[in-house]
Amino acid sequence: MREYWNFILQKVTVDKRLLLVYSVVYFLWGMGMDWFGQLVQIAKFTYWWQVITCYILYMVPISLILRGLPFHMQYAYGLVAMGFLEFGGYALQTSYAYPDNILDQLFNIRNFSLGMALFFALYFPLGNWLVGKIYGALFRRES
Q1: pLDDT (tens digit per residue) in 46-66
Q2: pTM of this structure
Q3: Could you tell me if 94 and 46 are in contact, meaning their C-beta atoms sit under 8 angstroms apart?
């Protein structure tokens, strides 16, 4: 068990600038997705600050842990993480799915959360790639 926690601690102990890049990118990404979800009436957070709890406090640490793994592994582990997040958000009613939204119409209401988890699991490999590019461009060979 100690090895597991040492592994996690090692993965999340990063340069503060990297953590800042992750936080800014994921916050903007989350606000944008919440805005888009409301605009096209798919889904939304009940409160705007949930972007902070979901995208920064939940997704950033998971992204750090998955960083460096192959794309398919980041997606697979991310799918598990997003499955729990989507299930919890709709079960606790802290997320709101608009009735008869386009995803319900395309995939059926019973598949809505699964569809959301399948989509948002892409955030982990894509987010790690994007943050790596931004961090590399901003702080290239500074150390």
Answers
A1: 999 999 999 999 999 999 999
A2: 0.88
A3: yes
